[in-house]
Design goal:
Number of helices: 18
Structural class: alpha/beta
Strand content: 15-25%
Length: about 500
């Protein structure tokens, strides 16, 4: 079904149309400084497309909850739900084709990243029979896919960035069409932004953002200055769903109101200084507690939390596990994950796809305690894929390899760790087939490209010795493999 929705008007008065069916296949990036009209643009897009396609909105500031009254969106207050319940909610959203707004207002930045990642993972993990089209709109996308370091736990950053990467890179085949909006292109991860084929660029002032915007629109650098002159609500459009050449448009009116609109100017009250002193600096009543900056979130209210609350209460003070118990649990997690990967087949599964399989295997083996969660699987998966042994992990220098791996792409980590383990032990360099298996490819050229990238970044150094084989060194610690036959078969 071909559907064109009107976003507004072009400079010559013609309707500015967006091909909705094309958008579902090509994704959209909206960029502009605060106050340029990004949220207004997203609201116009959501309102006009609501009758035709299911929608899921990741809303950090609660700006889009008003869609519920006019268009029937379900509002999910993230502060009232756990990450696990939000992941289940994401799956059920796909099953029942309900348009939703995930309201993250009132949640701290790290909580927003974790909850948004869990919800997106749930959308992504839906069964194939539920892969119907969904327009997934993420406002302030730089919060969830930052280009550099942020003041949150590394595990949280990776989870959010991984979920956003899945949405933009692999979501199309699952019916997920990403629409992401950001104030700063320079703060948005490049691998997330690069997957969009449609662009709406608003007013921008910083040189680095203007240059990236001009580059994405195929404009010359000298034309980038024009982004400073764009008025509020005016955007430059380009892409298969919008226009084949950069096109200026002004966004039209909307039917619903935003709770995030800035207040207008109003006259100050005429308060005499004496009265102001009494009003502002009067002592607080004795015993009145200081109100917190934000009220604490209410307890989870969904059915999963209610069922969990009905279970027998845990002991009042549960002693922490001993080092031996923690080590035994970790070995069990590694063993279960290894057993699941042994049946993985030629197509490598994502952590989200492995989670139900790991839970099933855990229950089959009747292991004590809860099964690994998604964070534990993400942490242990590279070690299992790379075949890292307990002896290697016990080596005092091994943390240096883990520190180097933290800056790599998810797919590169097992490859690097396998080489680092061989270099640390002075063992022969793994053969090409073993490296292809751990990298998850059957292509020698793709493996060669990956090794070159690692070498260019200074993670490894490769030496081919005539008649002796391949040697890989790890710069920094100075580890080096023994010569290995590149044509050696997988052990």
């Amino acid at each position: 079904m071909a559907v064109s929705i009107e976003l507004g008007r072009t400079d010559n008065g013609q309707p500015a149309l967006l091909d909705l069916e094309e958008l579902l296949a090509t994704r959209l990036l909206v960029q502009g400084n605060s106050g340029c009209g990004k949220s207004h643009l997203l609201r116009r897009l959501l309102e006009r497309s609501a009758p035709f396609v299911q929608q899921a909105v990741i809303d950090p500031e609660g700006d889009f909850v008003s869609l519920a009254e006019r268009f029937g969106h379900l509002v999910i207050d993230a502060a009232e739900h756990t990450e696990a319940s939000l992941a289940h909610a994401g799956e059920r959203v796909r099953q029942h084709r309900v348009s939703v707004v995930l309201n993250l207002e009132g949640v701290d930045i790290e909580g927003q990243m974790r909850r948004a990642a869990a919800f997106l993972d749930g959308l992504f993990a839906a069964e194939r029979r539920y892969w119907t089209p969904v327009l997934v709109v993420v406002d302030e996308a730089q919060l969830f896919a930052p280009s550099g370091g942020v003041e949150v736990a590394e595990e949280t950053r990776r989870a959010a960035l991984g979920a956003m990467t899945d949405l933009m890179c692999r979501g199309r085949k699952r019916g997920l069409a990403g629409v992401i909006a950001t104030q700063r292109l320079a703060k948005l991860a490049k691998n997330v932004a690069a997957e969009a084929s449609n662009f709406l660029m608003g007013r921008t002032f910083l040189d680095i953002d203007m240059a990236r915007a001009a580059d994405l629109l195929g404009m010359e650098k000298r034309q980038a200055e024009m982004f400073r002159d764009l008025e509020r609500g005016r955007f430059m459009a380009l892409g298969p769903a919008l226009a084949r050449r950069p096109l200026a448009m002004r966004i039209g009116a909307v039917e619903t109101e935003s709770r995030g609109a800035g207040p207008g100017l109003m006259p100050l009250p005429e308060t005499p200084p004496e009265a102001a002193h009494a009003l502002i600096l009067a002592p607080a009543p004795a015993g009145e507690p200081v109100r917190p900056r934000r009220p604490p979130p209410p307890p989870p209210a969904d059915i999963l939390a209610q069922l969990a609350a009905a279970r027998p209460a845990a002991p009042a003070s549960l002693p922490p596990p001993t080092p031996e118990e923690a080590a035994a649990r970790r070995r069990a997690q590694l063993a279960v994950l290894g057993a699941v990967l042994g049946t993985e087949g030629p197509v490598r599964k994502r952590p989200e796809e492995l989670l139900p399989l790991v839970r099933h295997q855990w229950s089959l083996e009747r292991l004590a305690g809860p099964p690994p969660d998604i964070a534990a699987i993400r942490r242990l998966l590279p070690l299992v894929r790379a075949g890292i042994t307990e002896e290697t992990e016990a080596h005092p220098d091994w943390p240096r390899a883990l520190d180097s791996a933290a800056a790599l792409l998810e797919r590169e980590v097992p490859l690097f760790l396998m080489l680092a383990q061989a270099a640390l032990a002075g063992a022969p360099c793994p053969g090409t087939e073993a490296l292809k298996a751990v990298y998850g490819t059957s292509s020698t050229s793709l493996l060669t490209t990956a090794l070159k990238r690692l070498e260019e970044r200074g993670c490894i150094a490769i030496l081919l010795q005539a008649g002796a084989g391949r040697v890989v060194a790890i710069p920094g610690p100075g580890w080096e493999t023994a010569p290995g036959d590149p044509e050696a078969a997988v052990a």
